[in-house]
Amino acid sequence: MSLSKLSATLLLGMSGWAFAAAAQAEPLHLTILHYNDMDRMEAENGRGGFAKLMAVLKDEVSRGDRTVLLTHGGDAISPSLLSGFDHGAHIIDLINETPTAIFVPGNHEFDFGPEVAKQRLSEAKFPVVASNVLENGRIIEGAVETYTMDVGDITLGFIGLTTPDTVHLASADGVEFAPVLETTARLAEKLRKDGADLVIALAHVDIGDDMDLIRQGAVDVILAGHDHNLMTFYDGKTAFVESSSQANYVTALDLTIEQVDDEIVWSPAFRTLDTAAYEPDPEMAAKVQQYLDRLSAELDIEIGKTETALDSRRATVRGGEAAIGNLIADAIREAVGADIAITNGGGIRADREYAPGTVLTRRDIQSELPFGNKTVKLEVTGRQIREALEIGFSQAEENAGRFPHVSGMTVTVDLSQPPMNRVKEILVGGVPLDDGKTYTLATNDYMAEGGDGYSALVGSPNLIDPAAANFMSSQVIDYIERHGTVAPKVEGRIVMQ
């Protein structure tokens, strides 16, 4: 089935995108195909990407015995490789090629700031619901507070929730994120009063908030994102799904809904669809290839070789000293001539391993550092450095993105101690840190503005004119090209007790 024929099967009478079986019988059979956290265009190791996603959708629609809705749980425009060049415009274009019924913004929608977020949302041909995302007291431009659609005789009401941690995880200056539970309780009640038979929350929040929403019981269905969990759950009242990431897996939530007397009765069933089992949709694959070709000419250029193994997997760069973290920290410190450097593990994103002897390309480094962050050179006191490192290690058990990678110093940490009391020793150039002394610090502009919770750095004098600052990725590429061969390793810069 072609994309044009697929689109022609839309239910034209409903306020949203949905696919219908020929004639609706009672009870209503509704399948929600849910995906989330998808910034990668193409398949990897046979899974994920837009062509595989479209193949799953077409297969489900071809069965013809139910209505099918495709929903997105947020995080799209960043941190993909191409987003470093077009700020996620290509991802919105690709989602527009799918009949996504509804979308909630994730924290990564704000990686490039609110103006870019609003621009991308304005380009969306699908409804965006952002119930707790406020700018100047109003729902952010390009989104709505709630959304309803009729599927046959059933009215679905949607709430969209974005993690309040976005203020720390992204560059969302001027945007507020209202409390999750309060927003949900208020809007769920309003939707039901306005006639919604089922209330569905698209919740791009962490798993703790997800569980709080389930316990609250204000909504019937939670379509989740943010944690990259592959998970389904039902407690007899609330159904929950989250679909890993990158459309590696798509969760099918099959709902049977009927009216018994004056009451709507429904029941869920769950199916986990492994996209490795599907052949890529050729039309979508061709669309993706156009973007991949655009990247190749610029990125597939060799820059040097690593003699040692590199590991940028999420657990590695957020859980301890990592060779690739050392490489990046060394490169930015050298580039700006700073005494020390600190960069956050959450900014290292390719989630892969490189064997010794691997020839590195521009693509590799752009994949590792896709956010478009620039390196700043701050003038800070030893006390600020100590506080910044305490912040960096404060959530180490949670594999939080704030975990620090350093250059020019060694740090001893005792994780058995409470947060903000874990750093036991800091040596700068082999000499104990002096809290009263001034040092120069290379870091990224995101952290300098308080990103990932680094409040200790906010307001520090920046010795580099912002207009003259260079991208971290460019500095790492230059560093590798200049050395030709690099051999970073774990060498005791961070000692965790």
What features would you describe in this structure?
Helix content is 28%, strand content 28%. It is built from 15 helices and 27 strands. The chain is globular, with a radius of gyration of 24 Å. The strands form seven sheets. A six-stranded mixed beta sheet has the order 6-7-9-10-12-11, with helices on one face. Strands 3-2-1-13-14 form a five-stranded mixed beta sheet, covered by helices on one side. The chain has a four-stranded mixed beta sheet with strand order 20-25-17-21, with helices on both faces. Helix 11 crosses helix 15. The protein is α/β, with parallel strands linked by helices and 497 residues long. The protein folds into two domains: 3-291, Metallo-dependent phosphatases (Purple Acid Phosphatase, chain A, domain 2); 300-496, 5'-nucleotidase,  domain 2 (Alpha-Beta Complex). It starts with a helix and ends with a strand. Residues 7-17 and 20-25 have low confidence and may be disordered.
The SS-based structural class is: alpha/beta
The total of beta strands comes to: 27
Please state how the strands of the largest beta sheet are arranged side by side: 6-7-9-10-12-11
Look at the structure and give the mean pLDDT. Answer: 93
CATH class of the largest domain: Alpha Beta
- Name of the CATH architecture of the largest domain: 4-Layer Sandwich
Summed up, what is this model?
This protein has 497 residues and is of the alpha/beta class. The protein folds into 2 domains: 3-291, Metallo-dependent phosphatases (Purple Acid Phosphatase, chain A, domain 2, 4-Layer Sandwich), CATH 3.60.21.10; 300-496, 5'-Nucleotidase, C-terminal domain (5'-nucleotidase,  domain 2).
